[in-house]
Amino acid sequence: MPRLIIKVDPELCIGAASCVTVAPDTFRLNEENKAFVLDHGQEPGGSSYERTLEVTEEEKENILLSAQSCPTLAVSIFDETGTQIFPA
Amino acid sequence: MRYVVVGGGIAGVSACEAIRKQDAKGEIILVDAEEHPLYSRVLLGPYLVGKISREQIFLKTEAWYQAQRIEWLRGLSVRQLDPVNHHLVLSDEREIPYDKCLIATGCQPRLLGEDLRGVSYLRTLDDADHLLQLLREQGDRAQGLIFGGGFIACEYLKTFEHFKVPTTLLFRGPWFWSRTLDAQSGRMITTHLERKGVRVISSTCVEELIGKNDLGGVKTNQGEFAGTILGIGIGTVPESDWFQKAGGKVQEGICVNAFLETTIPDVSASGDVCEIESARFGRSLVSRTWSQALFQGRVAGANMTGRKETFCEIPALSMSVLGLEVIFLGDTSREHAEKIIVEGDETTGIVQRFLRGGKLVGATLVGRSKDRSTLTQEITG
Questions:
Q1: What is the pTM of this model?
Q2: Quick one: average pLDDT of B274-303?
Q3: Per-residue DSSP letters for B106-117?
Q4: Does A18 touch chain B if contact means CB atoms closer than 8 Å?
Q5: Residue B326's beta-bridge partner residues?
Q6: Residue B307 to residue B259: CA distance in whole angstroms
Q7: How far is A37 from chain B (nearest CA, A)?
Q8: Which of B10, B128, B141, B312 could potentially form a cystine with B44 if both were Cys, beta carbons 3.0 to 4.6 Å apart?
Q9: Whether residues B125 and B209 fall in one domain
């Protein structure tokens, strides 16, 4: 299964919540109205703006779609080699 | 099949993407008033304060339109719609036939009626470039005036704060978003702004500009105020004239059903220009946010290819008023609410709950973001 590194820049996040709408298992809003990253709906190790996830191809496509939905490009996605996939 | 999408913002472009996903062969024509490839209007604020570069605003490159086989007609708009013969007349007099048409033209800012150098609007990248040019030219002598008590005013406040421009904020209502917020929430925002050093003048209307070529200030019903840059955010008007002239139904926006179809066959609408009939809220709603435009574009585009998807996302808008978080969720019309309950105070943050038929239909949160998830769940039921 592909591994993805997902990062949210809280400085850019404005709480538009598009990522939460598209991928609710991967993103949630915290008390500061910023999106943070979940691992399949869970928060192992507590709330975090960055996580490495093992995902299916279908989940990968949906997470990419959620990052593309962000109006401030606050979500960055890297593959397991650290190469940035989005924003390209 | 020939699809014509009018409007190259996020609603129009996401519709083009959805069409191409479903129909690899169809002809897609995108009529775009802008000269730039798609960019994020939401990033204009971070661009103005130097948080990101100009290049980072762009979401698509010119090559993308080619790769998707989208015929991108830039710098053009529509003048006329002929629903009987299924064609559009463009601003360069060209006639374009369509099988399916999408209107995603968005809104134009409401204008002041007068213009001098120093008057600024903030809708497009060109507007943002113009504001930066004014700020650079004027340097330390810049004096900021803002006319408006809403979302655009917030962007001017942040920009003026960043450039250390002394700011006077004028708005027509008694407080920010006075058609939505209660007096207590409104006072909390005003107090916050005053603590940040902003001079706030409420219940004011700009009547006249002062200056010959360059702006020197404004005349209002409460006297004169000096200023060299005037940022205007007094609302927006949907770009729907040609649709209305063709016999289409327009209220606050172009009326569409949950499939985003207008009252004219084979013509859909999405994004800021439309007003959606919502089964959840039992009335039609206008919600002018990026996310709504994006998701509406996706649904409208898919439906133009023959699918039958419905749009049912609840509106949500969140803003920062110089660091104070303000969130609107769901249906926040005071007029349509049967009961409004206000909870909290300045120390805890203030929540307004909008109820109809005994159910929560909307909420506003000022300085109380932590309740957002719970309230969203309650509204979605």
A1: 0.95
A2: 95
A3: -EEEPP-S---B
A4: yes
A5: B319, B366
A6: 9
A7: 15
A8: B128
A9: yes
